[in-house]
Amino acid sequence: MANIRKEMEGLVLEEKLIFDRSRPGKKAYSLPKSDVPETPLNEMLPEGLLRDTIQDFPEVSEVDAVRHFTRLSTWNYGVDSGFYPLGSCTMKYNPKVNENMSRLPGFAQTHPYQGDDLSQGVLRLMFELSEYLGEIGGMHSVTLAPAAGAHGELTGMSIIRAHHERAGNPRSKVIVPDSAHGTNPATTATAGYAPIEIKSNERGCTDPRAVEALMDEQVAGIMLTNPNTLGLFEENIVEIARIVHSKGGLVYCDGANLNAVMGVARFGDLGVDVMHFNLHKTFATPHGGGGPGAGPVGVVEKLAPFLPIPTVEKNDNGYYLNYDRPLSIGQIIGFAGNFGVMIKAYCWIRSLGPDGIAAATKNAVLNANYILARLKGHYHLPFDRVCKHECVFSDAYQLKHGVTTMDIAKRLMDYGMHPPTNYFPLIVKDAIMIEPTESEDKASIDNYIDAMIAIANEAQADPDLVKSAPHKTKLSRLDEVQAARKPVLRWKKED
Ligand SMILES: *Cc1c(COP(=O)(O)O)cnc(C)c1O
Asked: Which domains are delineated in the chain?
């Protein structure tokens, strides 16, 4: 424990509600006295648009407001404050230069109604980004329109349905392995198909024989997550694609975790017909920030006519948005998608280049395997084989001392570190899923591993210490069930 570098401890800023800072008459501005006559608001605006005074509205100075929100911000842990190894989420550091580019006035102040002729730069960026993603995924055409990964899945499955409908039978079922992301069966059902589950084999992968046994002319296709939610590469994907195609089905690949394969393997080359990308994981937009995302979808040539409108195209007059596509599944979002996210992805891809993209993948995979190798023996490893960008352990060793995955996660906070993903994927009991990403260096990864090992030792020597953690946070264990069921969202003035 002595060597572990604690990056945060002992400086916890206390902060009450902003209402407690309120003093009657305090203001956050000072302006010179107006030298023109004042017009009351109700003479300028209709009654219905004016609100009543808000009771107990806080009255604070500028410094009160700034301190209040700055202090609160220190209670939040983000990827800019430290290592954030949340498996499946790719919480990596994204270079700030991409944010700056997305705020360039020419981009930020563009308007979707300004017309193609005044939007040539914007359209060119979208056109080229689609081409780059097509190259990375091995796909013929890419739409940038979907706003998220799950939205991309629904777009992709709607395209698969449109293809089958045109062939005369939409079909009724879709195969979804149990190692697929939870959004996959949900998407399948939303697209009007019955999901049929396949259990993973002892290597944590989808068994081609199981697919073969289920595959018939009523199956529209398969939805594979690759790498799957165990962080493992679906090693039989080529064989699975052959089986699905032999009965006229299509292969959807959930590529949300592309930072484990991009630049090294291309889904299009492996027999995939439709895939989505999560720009807000792999491609330079922070994930989990609650802001906009983008889940572009790539398709093989025969599915290109079904892509949502508008598509970004190019002719002799320049770039344009094409709404005239009779076979399209239609429009799936306002205008053409979340453009700010596209700018960041474009800049990131251009700044790394092909070699940099492949290097990011290799570093992400190397980092995860390094963690796997060093923690093996300290934590139970349900699938002991080379992983991709994340590794999955469980609490099976610690449970002998009554220490659970949740306890381990809470204890990590005493070391000033963010816990990994807990209890996901569901197919591993009490999973602990760690995803370091390519953006961490060896020192920070070693530090995390040392803390995890220290906790494994504590679980043996002093289980109560771990079970009662965290000890050094502002609040210790919260009643999470109560907080979710009965959230208290309104401030009430104390009597
Ligand atoms: C994150 C993720 C999704 C869902 O993406 P959202 O943008 O959150 O909708 C789908 N599949 C996998 C494998 C993911 O990791």
From this structure: 18-73 (no CATH), 97-351 (3.40.640.10), 362-482 (3.90.1150.10)
